[in-house]
Structure formats: C-alpha cells, structure tokens
Amino acid sequence: MLSEPFKQSNESFLLVEECSHSFPSLTIGFTTKNNGFSKKPFHSFNMGLHVDDLDQNVIKNRQKLSDLLKFPLNKWVGAQQTHETTIQWVTQEDAGYGSSDYKSALRKTDGLMTNQSGILLTMCYADCVPLYFIEPESNLIGIAHAGWKGSVGNIAGKMVEKFEASGATPSKIRVVIGPSICQSCYQVNHIVIDEIEKVLSFDQVRPYTQVGHDQFQLDLHKLNTQLLLNSGILRNNITLSTYCSSCDDHLFYSHRRDNGKTGRMMSFIGWKE
C-alpha cells in the first residue's frame, strides 16, 4: 500500500515531509481549502485570482500562507495557466509576478523551473495534477500543471528535457505527483482517449477503463507516471499522492464535484535563502 507523502502540517496546507527532511532548505507542498478568508462558493482558503473571488480575500489568503511558510509573498512567481505545455525559466527578476495580481502572472505558462534560491514557484489547481521536480545536484526545481491536455502534451517529459538541457541527469531527478482527481471520479470520452493513444507505446498498460458507451475512467497519475518513465525517470524516484481532490472534499476544491464554481488549491516549491 502506498504511503501518503503529503502530510498535513496545518489546517491550510500539506508538506512533502520526505523532501523537507532530505533537503531542509526546500519548501514543497500543497494547500487545502480550509481556514481562510474567502466566502462561498470559494470558502475558504482560495488561492485563485482568476475565479471571480474577491481579490482582497485571495491576497489575504496568500499572505497568510506566506506568513506560515515564512516565504515572502513578493518572492512568489505565478502563471496564467492555459492547459498547454509552455515551461518558463524563472529568475530573481521574475519575483513577485502573479503573486498579488493575475495580470502580472507569466502568460500562457503551465510549468515553472529555476535553480535560484529565494523564489517560490506556484501553480493553481482544482482537479488537475501537480507535478514537482527536484534535482538537488544542480539545484534545479520545477512544477507543472497537468490536466488531460497537459498530460497528453507530455508536459512531464518536456520538463525532464528542460532539466536535462540545464545539466541534470534524468535518472537523478525526483518527481512528486500531488493530489488530483482520482480515476473513479474522472470520466472522459473517446476524444481524450484517442489523444492518450498517441503518446503511449503499444505495450504499456492503459491508464483508463471503459465503463460505458464512450465513457472511460482515466487515471491521470498513472498516465503521467508512464510518461515520466518514458523520459528516463526511475520508478523509485517517482512519489505518488493518494489524495483525491474530489473524494477528499473536506480538504480540497474540485472543479468537477463543485460544478465549475469553486476555488483553487496551490502547489508550491522553492529553495529558501
């Protein structure tokens, strides 16, 4: 049985304790929906600045997380995520972009990476898969936002390629796959399945099960795991969360469960100075 890597450190967030213990200067985790300032239907710890919540409430939530993590808000970097596969290299010059307003977030970006300390990379989610990448020898870290479009676009493999181009060896990269919607809660049609068939080899186990006419339950964790293995990541270096954003409704928002009107959790990763 899988051991859950995300441990609840506070009502408002979970940390990947194994990584925190291995790398004491690394801040890595995922927020919950609890103990914040937002009102229904975004109650209460909404991190999304693009979901019609009051910006002042979201900024108060973000400032609270900043205080809890002891990572200044003006050192965060966020993106205007578009379910694509663009990955941006981040430096100190980008610090603060998207931290307190959506307009300044990096445009059309679903992956962030850096090798610099003092920057917190952030992405927002409400069912999609958060992917965290760490290669400590080169000080490289990254996060990616992988819904089904980003997954079949192989944003996981593209991040590995970017790491490799920056001096990392794929077999030394560690990847954490965070809380997202589980296979039982996520049904798709043949359009999605046809795209998946384009990125998997014939001998790989399919990450979906047909449950009805043109209805398939899709395991996004399994799909991204297979793509990471194809990119040279060692299976022992891939850690999977067992949390489901839809099932675990006491902890998380879910776009599907909440019929599209809901808040956003945030993944975060950064080396402290």
TrEMBL record:
It catalyses: S-methyl-5'-thioadenosine + phosphate = 5-(methylsulfanyl)-alpha-D-ribose 1-phosphate + adenine; inosine + phosphate = alpha-D-ribose 1-phosphate + hypoxanthine; adenosine + H2O + H(+) = inosine + NH4(+); adenosine + phosphate = alpha-D-ribose 1-phosphate + adenine. It comes from the Bacteria. It holds the Pfam family Cu-oxidase_4. Its cofactor is Zn(2+). InterPro entries: Cu_polyphenol_OxRdtase, Cu_polyphenol_OxRdtase_sf, Cytotoxic_necrot_fac-like_cat. Keywords: Hydrolase, Metal-binding, Transferase, Zinc. NCBIfam families: peptidoglycan editing factor PgeF (TIGR00726). Belongs to the purine nucleoside phosphorylase YfiH/LACC1 family. Purine nucleoside enzyme that catalyzes the phosphorolysis of adenosine and inosine nucleosides, yielding D-ribose 1-phosphate and the respective free bases, adenine and hypoxanthine. Also catalyzes the phosphorolysis of S-methyl-5'-thioadenosine into adenine and S-methyl-5-thio-alpha-D-ribose 1-phosphate. Also has adenosine deaminase activity. This is Purine nucleoside phosphorylase. It comes from Rossellomorea pakistanensis.
